[in-house]
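User: Could you write out the 3D structure of this protein bound to 2'-monophosphoadenosine-5'-diphosphate? I've included everything you need below.
Assistant: Certainly. Input first, then the structure.
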Amino acid sequence: MKDRYAVVGNPVEHSRSPAIHAMFAEQTGQDIVYQRLLAPLDGFEPSLRAFAAGGAKGCNITVPFKFEAFGLAAVRTERAELAGAANTLRFDANGWAADNTDGAGLVNDLQHNAGRPLAGLKVLLVGAGGAGAGVLGSLIAAKPAQITIVNRSVDKAEALVASHAHLGVALSAATLPDAPAAQDVVINATSTSLAGAASPVDARVLKPGTLALDMMYGPKAQGFLDWAAAHGAEPRDGLGMLVEQAAEAFFFWRGVRPDTAPVLAALRASL
Ligand code: ATR
């Protein structure tokens, strides 16, 4: 029987992960199947246990179960610990192992696909919810000069600064209106694009050539990307991050690193 994996979420029918992992499997000759698994909002753990008991080897976890998944693991990678959330589980015989590959996915996309090494840059992270918290540790590991975290409720940004302060990069928190001007990289990790708003921060955060990335892709990201382009920034959606986080998960399960470039190109062409 083929090794089985899934993306577990609610909703999950929109997920592109099955298509991405099918391309990775074909490219690397790994004999796996990867499906979508809709878990009831109040029934994540039983759904997951049933999937694992049926012989599955692991899963990705998406909204809203990343925190619950983290709590179910016996061992966790350092980056999952920092995020306090897991997007990847491996069902090892001696206990479940949790990882969080979102931050590495974002950083790999920025540095390799977009060609923007973060070392020495000024980074603005907009949003201190689950998405922002999940990537901060990996952003810090890339050694930018500074990271400012802005959020509508500033206490959440301050909490992130406090929990990551020991990692050795200058971190500060501010409200959305107090976002600093002229940043090198601006990352939208809020869910405002779901509501159709262009940007939660003023255009003075941008300068010519700022890389402005929205973690979403498709129509949800368009308002932010149009706003960024209109102000001379280089817009980038979350599709590359999606493929890169999947590649990190694939490596966590299979020990094999897929080539992401053709997969990202195929996915972009299919949208
Ligand atoms: P996710 O897992 O997608 O990050 P979340 O944890 O609910 O979801 O976080 C949503 C983020 O979008 C938060 O940063 C939230 O700001 P608050 O922490 O102040 O709620 C932000 N957000 C959502 N709607 C917003 C809006 N209309 N304006 C500004 N920020 C918004």
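The domain at 3-100 is CATH 3.40.50.10860 (Rossmann fold).
User: Perfect, thank you.
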